[in-house]
Amino acid sequence: MSPHTPTPSQGTITRVSGPVVQVRGLTAPRMYEVVKVSNMGLMGEIIEIKKGIVSVQVYEETGGIGPGEPVFGTGGVMSVELGPGLLEAIYDGIQRPLQAIEEESQSHFIARGIETPGLSRVKKWEFTPTRKQGEAVTEGDILGTVPETTLITHKIMVPPGISGTIEKIDAGSFTVTDTVAVIKTENQVIPVTMLQRWPIRTPRPKKEKIFPAEPLITGTRSIDMFFPIAKGGAGCIPGPFGSGKTVTQQSLAKYSDAQVIVYIGCGERGNEMTEVLKEFPHLIDPNSGEALMKRTILIANTSNMPVAAREASVYTGITIAEYYRDMGYSVALMADSTSRWAEAMREISGRMEEMPGEEGYPPYLASRTAEFYERAGSVRTLGTDDRLGALTVIGAVSPPGGDLSEPVSQSTLRVTKCFWGLDALLAYRKHFPSINWLTSYSLYVPNIEDYWKKNVAPDFPVIRKEAMELLQREAKLLEIVKLVGMESLSHEEKLTLEIARALREDFLFQNAFDPDDAFTPLIKQYYIIKAIMTIFKEGSVAAQQEKFDFNNFASLSVIKEIPTLKTFPVESLDHFKSFIERAVTDIRALVTN
Amino acid sequence: MVHKEYKTAEAISGPLLIVEGIRGVTYDELVEVRIPGEKKIRLGKVLDAMETRAVVQMFEPTAGMSADGAKVSFRGETATLGVSTSMLGRVFSGGGDINDGGPAIIPDTHLEINGAAINPFSREYPNDFIQTGISSIDVLNTLVRGQKLPIFSGAGLPHARLAAQIARQAKVRSGENFAIVFGTMGVSFDEAAYFKKAFEQTGALDRAVLFLNTAADPVVERIMTPRLALTTAEYLAFEKGMHVLVILTDMTNYCEALREISGARKEVPGRRGYPGYMYTDLSTLYERAGRVKNKDGSITQIPILSMPDDDKTHPVPDLTGYITEGQFIISRELNTQGLFPPVDVQGSLSRLWSAGVGEGKTREDHAQVKDQLFASYASGKEARELAVVLGEASLSQNERLHLEFANRFEKEFIHQGEFEERTIEASLNLGWKLLSMLPRESLKRIKPQTAQKYLAS
Questions:
Q1: Gap between the Cα atoms of A361 and A344, Å rounded
Q2: Contact B56, B46 (CB under 8 A)
Q3: Which residues of B touch A514 (CB under 8 A)?
Q4: Residue in chain A nearest B77 by alpha carbon
Q5: What is the pLDDT of residues A128-168, one digit of tens each?
Q6: Nearest by CB: A110 against B117, B271, B346
Q7: Segments of chain B with pLDDT less than 70
């Protein structure tokens, strides 16, 4: 709750231009205060105050609204409701449940002026206290737990800014607005409910950010092996349309080993959100064996929904994500697409007649983008138990024409440390995921090298680096081949091409639509690479011998079997080990007898 | 409601009219302008509503309009269209006037032409396979009911013939209650006439509603045309339970009209002078496709647009591609070789293909055949490039086979007659026939069990 609630005031509309409405006569308007526009009660937010005239961005269509109609101040800023019931929900950009909107609209079209709380007021949750009466608690301490879904235990925390002694705490079945505990602070007695509110544009507090050192395991081979993102990191996926941004994002939402997923469909296709809605309840999370929906929160503000709500949707999503991070979970947030968010900012800015920056985007585009991605992080949360939580943020960027020199891509690249560049040419050749291995990068590799060495294999970083170099060498060799043909290459060069092709086609290529191929555990990824690179190394040694014949090498059974490596069962790594042994023997045999 | 009339039009600038001294005007409301001596009322809508002033965007040209004496009245409602099933078989102008000399339509109901956003929660995921009878579409870029899939074309390419063939042959396996809504924006008379004739010949005209704005018709009317078409489509689909195929051509002309209005408003332009909100504007058209819960009907959209200079990164195809669920790209190269339909299968994409294929929809082997055809065709094209540089003689045996495959794939699989209709089974079998030219180990996308069943025979 806002600490000081000024008396709500009333003003009059003086101008309506698309989603921006100008209002006169509001007393003491505050920036980002929520207002209700016209008697229809359309929700809006104050975004500028100038000489008694305030500009309001309205989260619903403004057709039929005109000067002279009233505007009501609410005194509160744009906030989200936090508490049990968020998981499995699907919200619009301002946290209205789409199901409730459907019921109130009584139509498949979205009606206007619908006011519906983000969390159900009637549903009862089983609250189990973890603290006792008389105990001292401080902000962020866990008071009790609620089994929210079979996967996630919701932790009810002391709201930020409060510390004191527990006067009363009860176990039982409560709605989110019932008082579950009473905390006596120095000068106040504060009832605590399971429902808390937090302003969306303010990052939730934490004790400190810590250095992210663990990878987010996604099951996507090119990401985990070559361009990994840390838990608590920030990454971006830019790419032209059709290059697979959404498929990659969805695949991360499905298979990554984060505990909670917040998926924001920001200004994207309606059918895509429907697909997620239909699919996730049936898909099984490979890490937990439960339905994916049980750990997922969806925010859907499709492209044809009001543009101002699209601007708000990323903040709504990230605030919810931070809330679960504060419980000590590892959360991953996918925003598809941040370009649409930036365009919403541009549209509002244009309507306000602000001085434009590059390509008509407002001058504050870069700082807003940076602020958003900085909300990612691996953190030590509030509370005396020193919980660790992580929020990984992955934003898709849709650069016009695939040209990365445009402002949204550039301001995103400056603040994200992981870049998965989707390539139109690879997509054209139907190589998916079309992450270009020559231009993409991850600056998290040094952070997580120790994790790999400890949890997968000591030589993981070395093999990874060698494979990367091989791919880079291939690019150079292919230039030469285009000019002079294969025949003029040395044995070793041919070998490089052959193995690099295997890396591309049998490792990097991954079919997100094939249930057997969509997710590869990290240990298996390691063994595939290890097998391929062993063949390369043994081959390189053999190629030095005079007896070596490339065609004999290429027709070895182990070479032909490389494509089957990814189908080896992960349960028995012996398959890989014996394959590697056989490869070594066979290749050595080529030049010994 | 009493409509006050104002004679205080102060300025006319391009398609915009500025009215002063007004009161109680609302955003987006419909405006009627009467010019002394003119019988017809000109229509517009409010773009910017201020306390005593309004900026009105006219739906028809302001040519011959004078600020003096013009009577402007504000209707207090947004623009609507009177709709009824008797619209089927009729031809309207791009502004919604009857254009075929027939009787007036007695509306069943009036619907707002801007429509409303469909709640994503209320949508039903499109998953009914539509058989177009065209192999390059059915197998490789499968169309499903409720999808929006544009045709990206260029000057001089046969997109009209392709669209007509799709409209003629499109079939679903479940019951038929289908209709076509066709809207043209700024196309030549010939093209509009071609479609009309094509619909007539197959008897589809009785099931079609046409909104025709040709190059000779007013530019600003083009803003209305697709909205009228889609409003009609929504009525037929969601009120009357029909499966509606909406064809809109040419979206590039629509966007140019949008640019013209934006320029007249002196807005800060985005790329190539198109307004910054063009993405949002286009989405309010394209997103009016789909299926919704508890309704039988569906809207499938095939917008056609021409890419200036065949440039896919031009704002119109670019923004369209970001909204639609894929695209069919017409290849100038294949067209030059005389192949029809010249679909650039690699550049084309159907995002919803996976929902439409597989056992019970098409056939169990569909996904693998599709993946393999793509992969082998890509290898074949690489071999072709290599052959251009080094000569065919320097290709390996494997590369030669792939080159041969690519050639036959284009001539036999992609190419088919304008009136040739292939069932999905025939198309898939053709795919297998071509794949059998290649050595088994190069068919990496085919799983062993599938190969055993389809490749051995």
A1: 10
A2: yes
A3: 367
A4: A64
A5: 999 999 999 999 999 999 999 999 999 999 999 999 999 99
A6: B117
A7: 1-3, 173-176, 456-457
